[in-house]
Amino acid sequence: MNYSTIKKTAVAASLVAALGFAESAQAQTPTVFGGRSQYRTWSIGVQGGITTPNVLVGGSNAFGQKVGYFQNKVGEYYGLTIRKQFSHLFGLELEGNRGRIKTYNHDVSGPAVERTYANGGQARSAEVDVNWAASLNGVFQLGTIDFLRRENAVNFYAKVGLGVMASNPVQFSNNDFTGTEVFNRKGQWGEEIFGDREAVGDRDYKLGAFVPVGVGVKFKLSEVVALNLGYTMNFTDDNLLYGPARTDYKGKFSNVYGGLEFTLGSRDKENLTFTNPVATLYDELKDPSLRNEVEALKQRVSTLEGTVDQLSKDSDGDGVSDKFDKCPGTPAGTAVDGSGCPIKFPEPVAQNNATTGAYYAPIQFEFDSSVLKTESYSTLDRLAKELRDNNATVTLDGYASAEGTEAYNLNLSKDRANAVKQYLVNAGVPASNITANGYGEANPVASNATEEGRIQNRRVEIKK
């Protein structure tokens, strides 16, 4: 894997991690899977294992041979992890490690190829001291076993990230990591220049970027502890990972590890790492207690509907429910007040017009409204017929109850008189035969201190 490929891999890893984080942030609260707040999402881990100087994808070693000639040697590798789980599919992990990577050239497995230095020393083995290696990884959970259970005991995952490593390679003249140290620049790193002139720095370790790519599996041991096993390939941009080598070589190594992961937070909450929302949904739907709760809720709704029906029952059809009707059995069409009792109108007055007709009760209106009630239509239809037949004139006087300001009530009373006039005009009465007036709160026919009185005062009187 060349440097360009490593950079592309790092960019791809960053994009995938960002997309996974965005997806998890947007999908925090599915209907049954109730979001991260009901789960434990933080964990820390300790791990240890071994390193080898090659990776599963193959490639050649730093001395130009195919893998197999330059032999693998096991080195130790150990570290810590801190992880935040954003959903059952994705989490971010901060990983830190240290240890050693070893490799050597074995005569039995192929030609004894060594690198010869100016001092006559020949490199036949190399040991890399990794002082520290830190990376930020996106962890993708790939699948679970027993997925129809609310929590799973086994969980597979893959991870990819980007990190920085501080290391120092030492090359030896023997293939067993003994003999003369033909290359060791500890305390002299800083200007990695080789060739015709010597470059001397003052650092014990050189820094290099690397991309970890790995897979693993976790086994749930308890509500707090899980066993974590994995394999990681590490690709670097460093052609000095094992010391001076081919200029086109970029170092790589892999590590196999095992460790324990400890979930943080209250034990009353489940571990999001081992939770499957599909299984949770299945369990919820199969849960007898949930069905009982639904049935109880349905019973409560049924009872509530019965209460509402009882409250809205109106046997005499006067618009006032039986529960609040103080005058049940009112004849159909009777104008009633808020208690369901008939409204008593003033006795009819003598008509001053030459043409005398029937008395017409005042037209009533709702509070703060100039909209005609449907029960007024029959009265106005009779009035319109009489006016048309006799070519008579009529005066409409509008009034309001005492709520609100006088100016507002004056305009409201005019609107009520004009609403009656417009109905008569639409029924064929010439507009010139109709006079509409508004008097606001004047001339109340009942007390404005009670609702019954105010209902009577919201009116239009018909005068012929």
From TrEMBL:
Instruction: Report membrane topology.
Output: Multi-pass membrane protein
UniProt xrefs under InterPro entries: Bact_OuterMem_StrucFunc, OMP/PagP_B-barrel, OMP_bac, OmpA-like, OmpA-like_sf, TSP_type-3_rpt
Tell whether Ion transport is among the UniProt keywords: yes
Q: Which residues form the OmpA-like domain?
A: 352-464
Superkingdom of the source species? Bacteria
One Pfam family name is OmpA
Q: Where in the cell is it found?
A: Cell outer membrane
Endpoints of the signal sequence: 1-27
Q: Which GO terms describe its biological process?
A: monoatomic ion transport
Keyword annotations from UniProtKB, A to Z:
Cell outer membrane, Ion transport, Membrane, Porin, Signal, Transmembrane, Transmembrane beta strand, Transport
User: Looking at the keywords, is Cytoplasm present?
Assistant: no
Name the SUPFAM superfamilies on file: OmpA-like, OMPA-like, TSP type-3 repeat
Any one GO CC term of this protein is: cell outer membrane
According to its UniProt record, where is this protein mainly located?
A: membrane
What PROSITE patterns does the database record attribute to this sequence?
A: OMPA_2 (PS51123)
A molecular function (GO) term: porin activity
Q: What is this protein called?
A: OOP family OmpA-OmpF porin
